[in-house]
């Protein structure tokens, strides 16, 4: 199957194979990507995905064939760590290696090399999030908008925002998250937005859409919360 056929079925909820293809991308593709970043072998990936070792080998081989630069980058990262004793993120944050990076035992040396390479990825992502959170404070978003900053969760920023301030919030967060693109990276950071009555029930809007779309989603979320409050007040009255 070619990529275009897969994406067509993946994006079409009415397609016969949509559900199966969604599972493939959601589990196997994500698991393989994480495995690559950690330098996982076929046996490790096999356990993580609960698939035969042969299939795990095929997944890793296909990924390396599609993105040959991954192996080159991993080796370059390991060479840098052995030369300088640390690895660093795109922003310059360092993680110093232990003596295991020079160990004669392949297992210890390999583990330290994997940790160093992974730090470049995970550490850069953490630096990006810190940059966004710093921007929220520097711009005074919490003071200027009617909002409550809830928490950063993985690579997301979750906030409760007044229905009339949602658009302004999205515009400013779009700027902040776009500016968090790591230095030297050709592919820009492209933030996506979700709006809902609570974190467990969100409508994904994707890249910043038109203002009308954002405001309609915000209004729908507000109305659902109003209905919840009405039902809850009736329950309390009945209990009394």
In brief, what are we looking at here?
The protein is globular. It has helices spanning 3-11, 18-38, 42-49, 53-66, 69-84, 106-139, 141-144, 166-178, 211-239; strands at 86-88, 94-96, 147-153, 156-161, 192-198, 201-207.
Keywords for this structure?
240 residues; alpha+beta; DNA polymerase, domain 1; 2 domains; 6 strands; 62% helix; globular
Structural summary, described in words:
It is a single chain. By secondary structure, the protein is an alpha+beta fold. The protein folds into two domains: 3-128, DNA polymerase, domain 1; 141-239, no CATH class. 62% of the residues lie in helices and 14% in strands. It contains nine helices and six strands. The chain has helices at 3-11, 18-38, 42-49, 53-66, 69-84, 106-139, 141-144, 166-178, 211-239, and strands spanning 86-88, 94-96, 147-153, 156-161, 192-198, 201-207. The strands form three sheets. It has a two-stranded antiparallel ribbon. A two-stranded antiparallel sheet has the order 3-4. Helix 2 crosses helix 4 (53-66) and helix 5 crosses helix 6. The radius of gyration is 23 Å and the shape is globular. The mean pLDDT is 89.
């Amino acid at each position: 199957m070619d990529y275009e056929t897969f994406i067509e079925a993946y994006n079409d909820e009415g397609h016969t194979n949509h559900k199966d293809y969604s599972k493939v991308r959601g589990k196997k593709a994500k698991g393989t990507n994480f495995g690559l970043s950690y330098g996982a072998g076929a046996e490790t990936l096999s356990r993580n995905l609960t698939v035969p070792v042969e299939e795990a080998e095929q997944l890793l081989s296909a990924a390396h064939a599609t993105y040959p630069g991954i192996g080159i980058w991993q080796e370059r990262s390991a060479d840098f760590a052995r030369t300088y004793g640390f690895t660093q993120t795109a922003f310059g944050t360092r993680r110093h290696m232990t003596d295991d990076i020079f160990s004669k035992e392949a297992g210890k040396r390999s583990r330290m090399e994997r940790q160093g390479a992974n730090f470049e990825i995970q550490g850069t992502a953490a630096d990006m999030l810190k940059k966004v959170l710093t921007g929220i404070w520097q711009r005074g978003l919490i003071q200027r908008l009617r909002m409550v900053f809830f928490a950063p969760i993985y690579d997301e920023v979750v906030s409760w925002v007044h229905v009339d301030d949602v658009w302004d919030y999205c515009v400013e967060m779009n700027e902040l998250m776009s500016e968090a693109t790591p230095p030297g990276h050709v592919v820009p950071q492209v933030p996506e937005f979700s709006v809902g009555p609570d974190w467990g029930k969100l409508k994904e809007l994707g890249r910043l859409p038109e203002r009308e779309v954002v405001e309609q989603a915000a209004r729908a979320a507000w109305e659902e919360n109003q209905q919840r409050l009405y039902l809850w007040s009736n329950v309390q009255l009945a209990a009394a």
